[in-house]
Each structure stands twice: as C-alpha cells, then as structure tokens.
Design brief:
The chain contains eleven helices and 14 strands.
Amino acid sequence: MAGPRIRVLICDDSIVIRRLITDVLKADAEIEVVGTAVNGKNALDKLAMLKPDIMTLDVEMPVMDGLEALVELRRRDKKLPVIMFSTLTERGAGATLDALERGASDYVTKPANVGSVSESMEAVRSQLIPKIKSLTGRAPMPPKRARPAFGGEPPRGPAAPGAPGAPSAGGPITTAGRTGKVDVVAIGVSTGGPDALTTVISHLPGSLPVPIVVTQHMPPVFTQLFAQRLDTKSALHVVEARNGEPVTPGKVLIAPGDYHMRFKRSGDTVTAVTDQGPQENYCRPAVDPMFRSAAEVYGGNVLAVIMTGMGQDGHRGAEPILRAGGALLVQDEATSVVWGMPGAAVAAGLPCDIIPLPQLAEAIASRASSGRGTISRSRGA
C-alpha cells in the first residue's frame, strides 16, 4: 500500500448513518475510520486526539449542528477538508449551500427512496470515496506537462499525437486563426464550485456584453437555490436555465440539476435546450455536452472556462471549441479546491491560459469586451 491510510472522522446523530458510512469506508483499503461523533460539539472535542485527515459532517444534529460546528472548526483549522451530508430537499440544499459558504469543501447527498441497504451503501460509496480521495490528494492526477517558453501565464502546447490525454481526433490543436471575438462565455466547474463561481460572477460588470452559461455539478433543487443566491450577489441576472430560455447578454444561465444544457440557434436568437440524455463523465449535467453544443452554435466565438473540480469533465468538450478558434481559460492549481478538471485540460496539452481565481473575473471581462463597446441595461432584462 502506498502511504498511510486516509484518516476519517464521521459526525452524524443517526447511528444508522454512522454505521452505513463506516461500513462503506472500511471496505476501502486506503481509508481508515478513526472515530465517530454524535454531534458537532462531540466532533470538535475529538479532533485533537484523533487527528483526522478529513471529516464528514451532518447538517441537522442536536447540541451543536453542522453549521455551528463548521464555523467553530474553521476558527481552529482553515484547511481540514469537510464533506457535508445533505438531504435532497429545499431545506437540506439551503443548509448545504450555507455550509459551503462557511468553508465546507464538498457535500454528499443522503440516499433517498432506496430500496435496500446494499443500494444505500452503493449510493454513498459512489459519491463519498472519490471525494475523500480527491480532497486529501490521493486521487490519481494526470501527469503535468512542461510549459512552453512564453511570458506570463502562457497557453499550453498540444500533446504529442498518441500521447496519453492527447486530443482524440482531428490533429493537433493550435492557437492559429483566432479572431479573439467572444459571443458567449461557457464555464464548467464542480468541487469547490459554489464559492469559486460566487467569487467570479459577483465581480463581473453588469455591462458585460455577452451571456454566460454554466454547468456546475449539482443535483436538482441545489441548482435552483444556488442560482437564486448567486443572483442576489451579482450585477448580472442569474437563473436556473429552463428549456427554451433565451441566451442573452446580461444573463447567467445555470444548467439545472439532472439535465444537460445545450443550445439551439434560430436566426439571431439562441435558446437553451435542457435534456436528460445519458450521463457523461458520470455526471448530468455535464460540462462536455455544453461545451460541444456551444462550439456548434457559436463556432470559434466561445470563451471556455474550466474551474475547480474533481474528475476530467470539460477537457474533451473544450477540444471542438479550440478547433473552431475559440479560447480556453483554466483556474490554477493553487486556488482550486481540487485541480482535477483544470488539471486534465492542462495534462491533455490543450492551449489555455492558467489564471488564479482572484483574477478570473477580470480575465473573462477583458476577453468578452475585446473589440466591443460595453452596453447598458437594466438588471434582469
């Protein structure tokens, strides 16, 4: 076995859930459950003795609930990864979004309407174990490729044909032929996304002359509440996309949970198309189908952005955007909660600029406004 096992502390007031999580994690040779706690205070009291690498935390508990415990934990320890356990309800989603704003790293939804213990265990296993390994740096990462000799944060060169992660078809992708014009900004993001998206979207000007479309890996209910929260913090109008929703400047469309978001053009009008097509990269919504559709509808006038997230969703969908003459920005490793999705794009050799989170809004606004005059509009138009 490579390295020590990942030490996990489980905090939940339900003995059934504590046992379920324990049994799921004990089946993985890389993970060790070092303790359990029945409420937030109990968990905080055990931290110094157990020294976990990561912690799971229920939201609703007696004595001290998950949100109270998280706030106190972050006073003591800014870096310990925390995964919230949430219910697929409006109340559960709202509390989870509160937790993410207060420093939680990610969340897992509790099994709902599952007919057997084995199905419940599989539902938890499929979500929880990959997140534990990603947040503790144990998930396999794509190999890093050397930077070309450009100044600043340079575009990355294409991978050699046939190399691992090389573009799948159509020959090398180069930066040649780009006009620089942007008609839409398409953002893909996962783990760490709510906080990172809030940072970016809240700093974009209301005069941004192009629409923004976003796929954030989130289940139903969560996407609607997240869009509503983000709308209150942004000069742009943020909505959960509906089928037929116009894609217009001044608006940010969030792909709805359990639906892919694609696009359709009729003359000068572009609308969102939502569908429940097959999962891609084990996700729905997924970034790849959104990126592919953006390339089909907008050609090379797409600015793709891949932000923090586990897995590799986005880099294959970015290929047709780049082949058409579009551009790609990726969030840098230092400011990403998990550098899986951005790292996969870099490892694949896709030409891109690597931008720290605090500079992403400025980079997006600059690219989107290049060659255009800013426009005035009333919010919500």
